[in-house]
Design goal:
By secondary structure, this protein is mostly helical. It has 15 helices and no strands. It starts with 11 loop residues before the first helix and ends with a helix.
């Protein structure tokens, strides 16, 4: 009698990846996003991309050419370089602010859901109060309140390290933006994590961990938190475009990235001011911006369907 070896079972994460790989729109979005990140962070390192703040007085407001592929703006600055450098700042703010949001939301939701009782009720009422505040207004006030300390931090770093202010200021100038956005961006994730934790804390594997005498910290971060990976990943991919849009809104009204540095929001603002004379100044950054947001949203939808196949059938 012949016996066949049992086939190896796949984990839930492997099944999710297989479902994601069958989603062509999500796969194309991943390819596009990888290409966008490589273009924004690696292409400016090559000599073919000029400095975005250097003006070419011989080619002011010129059309595309071999020297300036996307043309120049009204000050003679290369548009391709400005779009790539602006994308670097916008994507960096989106990633950093999302990291702040995810860390705060996961920890807060885990604690509220695991402790429960009056502590949970008090923590969630605090979230409700923060939800009632106008998001953009709070972000603007918070950003303005920490702008001066960040300037002092920049001067301190320049004195201690001896680095150039032009190299330090663009990076540290992003601190008020992603801290202000991340300060209130974690509220929705905290609710999601808290609801999932309320269900997971009554599962058998958590009760077994308690019976073994494991500490609460170990149970939270080694047993409950890994089971929240799916919802957190989905929320992260859906939160990044919203944060990039918020940063662009702040830059559009003059409260984000400061000149001469640029983000997609500042480039769209400059293009909108001159759209009747040179519409391409608005078209190029808006096109990069919209395509990136669409790719992030398509990837988020694909991950949601992959980790929760019931939503795809519904």
């Amino acid at each position: 009698m012949k016996y066949s070896l049992p086939t190896s079972s796949r984990s839930l994460r492997q099944d999710a990846l297989r479902r994601l790989a069958r989603n062509r729109v999500a796969v194309c979005s991943v390819v596009f996003l990888v290409g966008m990140f490589l273009a924004c962070f690696l292409l400016p390192l090559f000599p073919c991309i000029p400095d975005p703040n250097v003006t070419d007085l011989e080619h002011i407001a010129s059309a595309g050419s071999w020297q300036h592929w996307l043309g120049t703006d009204h000050l003679g600055r290369d548009m391709l370089a400005r779009v790539l450098y602006g994308g670097r700042i916008s994507l960096l703010v989106g990633v950093l602010a999302t990291a702040v949001t995810v860390c705060a939301g996961v920890v807060y939701g885990l604690l509220a859901g695991y402790v429960g009782g009056r502590t949970d009720a008090f923590m969630m009422r605090a979230v409700d109060v923060l939800f009632a505040l106008p998001f953009i207004v709070v972000v603007v006030v918070f950003s303005l309140s920490i702008e001066q300390p960040c300037r002092e931090l920049t001067e301190c770093v320049v004195r201690v390290t001896g680095w150039s202010r032009d190299a330090v200021a663009p990076l540290l100038g992003l601190v008020p933006v992603f801290l202000a956005i991340g300060a209130l961006g974690w509220l929705t994730l905290a609710r999601i994590v808290r609801a999932q934790t309320l269900v997971l804390r009554e599962q058998e594997f958590v009760l077994a961990a308690r019976s073994l005498g494991l500490s609460h910290v170990t149970i939270l971060f080694r047993h409950i938190a890994p089971n929240l990976l799916g919802p957190v990943i989905v929320y992260t991919t859906l939160a990044v475009p919203g944060i990039i849009l918020t940063e662009s809104t702040l830059s559009f009204i003059g409260l984000g990235v400061k000149a001469p540095n640029s983000s997609w929001g500042t480039l769209i603002k400059e293009g909108a001011d001159r759209m009747e004379v040179a519409p391409e100044l608005l078209l190029y950054p808006a096109l990069f911006f919209c395509l990136t947001l669409l790719a992030l949203n398509f990837l988020g939808d694909g991950l949601r369907d992959a980790f929760d196949p019931k939503s795809a059938r519904d």
